[in-house]
Structures are given as structure tokens and as C-alpha cells.
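User: These chains co-purify. Model them together.
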Amino acid sequence: MSSEFHPRNEEEARRVEEMKREHLLLDHRPRAEMNDMVMEAVEDTSREWKFAVIVLGLLTAVTLFGAWGYMMLKGLGLAGIRRPVFWGLFIVAFVFWIGISHAGTFVSAILRVFKAEFRRPFTRAAELMTTFGLAAAGLYPLIHLGRTWRFYWMMPYPNQRWLWPNWRSPLLWDFFAINTYLIGSTLYLYMPLIPDLAMARDRSTGWRKKVYGLLALGWRGTEQEWKHLQKGIQIFAWAIMPVMFSVHTIVSWDFAVSMKLGWHSTIFGPYFIIGALLSGIAAVSVVLFTVRATTKNMRYFIRPEHFDALGKLLLIISLSWAYFFFNEFILEWYGGEHTIKEILKFYMFGDIAPVWWTMVTCNFFIPGLLLWNRKFRRTPWLMFLLGIVVNIGMFAERYVIVTGALSRNRFPFDWGWYEPRLVEVSIVFGTFMLFFFLYTLAARFLPLIPVWEVEEGQHSHTWRRIGRAILPAVSDLESLD
Amino acid sequence: MAGGNGHEEHTKWVMVIDLDRCNGCGACVTACAMENNVAFVGEDENAYGRGMHWLRLQRYWEGEGDDLRVRYIPTMCQQCSNAPCEPVCPVYATLHSEAEEINLQVYNRCIGTRYCANNCPYIARTFNWFDYEWPEPLNFQLNPDVTVRRRGIMEKCTFCIQRIRRAEEDAKAEGREVYDGEVQPACAQACPTEAIVFGNWRDPNSRVRQLAASERAFKLEEALGTEPKVIYLAGGRHEF
Amino acid sequence: MEGYQGRYEPQMYVAIFDDVERVPDALDALRQVGVTDEFIQVQSGVPYASSILGRPRVFTAVPKYGLVGAFLGFLSGLFFTHGTAALYPLYVGGFPLYSVPPSLVLLFELTMLGLLVATFIGVLVESLLPPVVGKRVYHPAVSDSAIAVFFQTSRTLAAEARKALQAAGAQEVTEVEGSFV
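Assistant: Joint model of the three components:
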């Protein structure tokens, strides 16, 4: 497809160069070269990478599975939870990881549906985050059980007397919602990956060729294959969004359908979704920075324009979070129910106050004040740091909601407080290690950049001259039949 | 409702606790623990908030100086008709018994999500954080009628269902109805001031029915609509 | 070398193009020679709509798979909510045995699960992936964004087709083994 543009003078040539530096999709490169770049990145199993994999693997084994096994053997009492705070760090981390898993699909599906072109290079990096975030989250409903070895009783199958699980329980809704989302988002990750796996199959040797060949399912790129695949991706992009919204809504219903004051709130569904997107999009910028810094050739694909776009999204979400937070907080406080007042007092001035103020600061004040600045949004390492700060804030938010509300009850006799203990801190740390471990492994196995989507984007971007100005022009190739 | 269990009209067990009579001695707590094999968790764990008592004495101080008063409210599972703990359990480990109209806890079905405990407005449930040992000689007093629970499951007051069943079977063997006062949970039996009375609500002449007719009768957090089966008689601002 | 019979046996050929702009004209040239559309297959490294290539429109039944899956998912949801309640009636929290609002959650999730899984299966089945038997034609240059035009014709017509394709800008035209699907 011809995308040649002939500048008329030096001024125009300079302007074209500038825009090429700025926009990946204007900076055309031959597909073979992009394939080489991506394959070089994937096959770059350097010593540092091997070291990282071994260290992360060992840390996962010890801090997650070691501590979990020890806790199963001894009893859940090794965690700090006590009456009346029956849920602690495990549920906090569960909600946190579910939140992380949201942004991948959000970025990919919503931006795909709205044909936001800047999404193209980083959808896959974000979707991988969804899959591994869910892998980490999915462990917690097992970890936090008193009898983990009986977890399969929650699965939808009958016992010998035809007793099925209780479908009225929000925990069962969780089970179905998380499984639907896990299966859906994994397939959604896999479908656009098939052509890239075929590309990897064509350019690799040895075991890689065999594995890529198996995973590529004999993809050849015929007209029929493309048509069906694109239809499938289109259906997924639409259908995965309500599933994604439902998952975090249902997680929030674990709290909201209860009789617990501080939990029983009608705004929890959207409040949790916005929170999930806040932490998730912040995590995307962390992941993108890390990928860019540690993987070859990624500086070409992931550019300041992408951090800029994420920064704007993050700003909107941060303000929305503040809006929901304000709604949740002030209405309950204004209503003035006695126990609610005690809970809110506990949040702001009680034992949990440092966590509560961390939440407000990291989720609203810091991103809300900094992200207005274009220079800030376009500096990847600053966006990386901000991503970590926002995630600390969102972890704090879940901590306040889960353990804070449980600490104050209707009868003052049942007031309590909870402090995490080493074993549960270790397990939560371990799931972070698990996430990093899986991501590090995948980063040297799967093509992190959807090359065919980038090429498609570069095809659809051309130049247009209006008067004396030169502008990028985008043609909507996807609308063709 | 004609139940499926052969009961023409089943019994509805209720408890009446007269707070004016309760002096906070704690005999009920001890009796309950002994009757129901409630685990002995040790001093440190108990201080940490992991005591397994099914029945607790809520104690509130009022006033200051010479006017200092104390109020006791013995609180156990309120056996709600609309129990918030039941629908949230994913595996039906806690559910409603149609025969006795009480709230059951099926120990060997429980997987320990602890959701029920969070959703209980009375914080009446306790969790087995560890496998607990009964130090000698306490192990000799274990009640053979009651299951010993292991780590990782919830438990709570059962209204001494083993005593209810025994009384019902005795009555059936002798071809009569269970008479009023025949069933006494351990707490009611141990109470020196007879503050706790237990009986069948469906029997119009029962003592619980008469006591509950008092103006002082109330239920804990009645406005929540949980319909508890423990009725309190107000009072009990004791001099200390 | 080859017998009289062999000259009329269908043989597979591939023509490689590096620019999609040349492909529609090349396909026209092929048709002129007498190779009809059902004996042509285009492979590419990025999706090109049939309107770009000037090829007959591809029909996709993937949405139908999705609808059937969604329906089956909905039915399984009905079973999990109302069917299992009937198999072992247990009363909890003063709820009715069959209640609609809480069942909506599972109905939604299982409907969506059915839709998503069936859509994925539809993509595979409709594209006949993965291949089960036989060797399919393929050219690895496709993943480097070359456009491969595979066509099947007799050896007698091949020379003419080759000439027409090269005139239309094909880089190479070679004989290959394998079938379209």
C-alpha cells in the first residue's frame, strides 16, 4: 500500500520527521524488519533474564507456596485475622488482583471498539497482565479457605446425594464470574495472537518452532481465516466488556449484598469498577515501562505518545474515583446513622487512619495534581513511579474497605482491629512474585507486540496536506467488508 | 405448613433471657463450653480475640463514679428466621432446619469461607483457627453427643440441638408430647438466677410464651428484619 | 517426463506479490486466463477485505455459533439456578426456593460464557483450524507481509497464467504441493 509522502520543502520535511518520531503508526517500517525486531526481543534469553526467572521462581515457591502449605498444615490462625475481622489481607489482595486484571481487557476491548489507533502496540502487553493478574487473584479464594483441601465443593457438581452448591451465594457468583472472565480474556488474548504465533513459527527453529507451530494451529492467513478471526475478535471486544464490568461488580457484591454497615452500599459496583480501572491502568504504565526498559527494540514500539494517552485516561479515572468516593463517603456521613459514623470516624482518625489517608493521597491528590502536566505524562519513568503510587493507594483502599468496616460493628462489644502477620504478608508478596515470574517467562516466549495489528495500523495511516499544513490521515480499513 | 419430615406442625424453639435477672456470673458461658465441646484456645489466643465461646456476655459500663452501673447481655446465635449468614454460604454449610426452625451449621460441609461470620449482625459465630487440644483433665469431660470440630470450620450456638433431639426421642418412645421445660440448653440449666428460659413457641401455655408477653420484651436489632428467636426482657442496670 | 494425462491434471501454483495494489489486477489477469475464483486462494500477513482484493465476499457464520452458545449457556444457567434447587430443596435465609433476582447473575455469566466459548469454537471450525489431514498450501513469506496468490490449474494453462501474473507484477510464480483446505 503506498504511503509515500513527498515533502515540498525543508520545512515540510522537518515536520514529517517530527511526526514520525512522535507516532509509531506514521513511522513505517517494512513488516519483515518489525518481525525481526519482535523475534529478536522474544529470543533474547540473556543471563540476566535467566537469573531473574530463577530468583522469581524460587521466591514464588518459598514465599507463596511454602507459606501457603505451612498455613494449610497449621491452620488459618497463622494469619492475623480474629473476631470480628474475619477477612483480612487475603481478600484485600484478591480484590486488588481482580482490579489489576481489569485494565488489560479495558484498554484492549474499549479502545478496539472505539477504534483508538494508539492502542495497537500495547494491547497484548496489557492483556497478558489480565491473564496473570487473574491467575494471582484466582488463588486467593483457595488460600483464604479454612479448609483449602475442600475447595472443589464450590464447583458446580453434585455430591452423592445430588446436593449442588448454593447458587444464591455471592461467592458462587464470584466463582462463575471469575471463570467466565478468565476463560474469555484468555481466548481474547489468544485469538489476535494466532497470526503472530504463525509469524514466530515461520522464523524460529528448534523447540520454539515446534511449540509455536502447535499454538499457531496451522494459521496461514487466508481470506477466510482473516474474516472469521476478525469477526471473532469483534464479537469478543463487545462481549468481554460487560463480562469485565460484571466481574468487579460481583466482587463488590461480596461486600454490598451483606448486612454489614460500611459494606452495604449501593454505589459499590461502579465504585469498585472505577477503582479497578484506576489501579489497572496505572499497572499498565508500570508494565509498559518495564517492558520498554528490559526488552530489546521496544523503544520503537512503545513511545511517549502511549504513556501520554494512558496518562490522560488515568487522570479521567482518578477524578471519577474521587467522584464515587465522595458520593460514597459524604452521603453515609450526612445520613448520620450512628454505627456508620463510628466506621467513618475509625477510617479518618482511628487505627486505620494512616492507610485511609494514603488512599486519598495516592488515588486522588497525587495523580490529580500531576497528570495535568503534559511533560509529566510523556516521561515514562515518572509514569512508572506514578503507577506504583496509585497501586499503593488502591491496595490501601481495599484494605480500608475490607478490614476497616469489619472493625466497627453495631454493638460496641464487637469492635475489633486487625493487623497482618508474617505468613499472610509473605503469601501476598508471593503472589506478586508469581505475577512477575509468569510475566517474565511470557515476555521471552510470546511476541509481546501484535505485529500484524501494528502493520495494519501503519497501512491505515497516511499523510494529508491541508493548505500549508501536513496532518496524519487515518483510513478505517476495519470497516471494509 | 405440613413439613416433609413427618411433623404435622413442628416446634418452634425460642429462648427468653431476663436481663434483670442476669448478674453476669458467667456460669452459662462455662456450661455451654462444656456441653458443646467448645475448644480451649489458651490464654494468649483468647486475649487476641480468638476465644471460641458460643455464648458471650456483652458487658457495658454506664455512668461514672458513684453512679457507675454495669449492663450484661448474654449473646449467642439468635437463630434468625431470616438469617443473613445462610444465603451467603456457597456450599449450604449453614442452612435452615425445617423441623426445628433453627439455624443449622453442618460442620463437615463447611469449607471455611467465613462469609457467614462477616454477615452476622450479632458477630455470634466463631472460627476454628487451629486444631485445638484439650489439656488434661479437660479431655475427660468431652460430650460424646457433640462432634469435635477440627481446624478451618465455623461453628456457633445450636440451641443445644442434641438435647432437643434427645427430649423429642424420649417423648416419642413414651408416646407423648415434649412437655414444657423438658428441654433445657446447658446455659439455661446452669443459670443460678433462672434468667434463661427455653421452650416451644407453638405451645400457647409455655413459660416462654408467657414471659415474652411482658412489656419488657425486645429482640436484638429487631429493625434489621432478621427475626431472631432469642427474646430479651429489658432491664439490668446493675449496681456494681 | 510426464504423460499425456498429467498435462490436464490440476496443479497448484503460487504467485508472490509485495504490494497489495498489484493483486486485484493480477487476479483479473488470472480470471482472463480461465482460472475462476474458487480455484484461487489469497494469503496475507495482514487482513485485506475482499473489497480491497476484488474477490467474492467471504461469508462468516461465527456470530451464529455465538448465538447458539449463548442460548446453551442460558439453559445451563437455568439448570444451575432453578434445576439444582429442585434436585435438593434447601431453604436459606428466608429466601424462596426459586427466586429470580439472584438467579440473574448466574444466567448472565453463563450466557456470556457460552457466547464467548462458542464464538472461539466458531472461529476455529469455520476456518478449519487446526488442520487434521493433508498438506495445505502455504508460503512463509506471507508472515513477512507478502501476498501469496495460490491458484490451481492444468499445466497447459500454467504457462499462460504465469506470464499474465508476471506482467501484473508477481515476483515469482512457482509450482507447489498441497491443497487449499
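Residues 24 and 54 of chain C are 6 Å apart (CA to CA).
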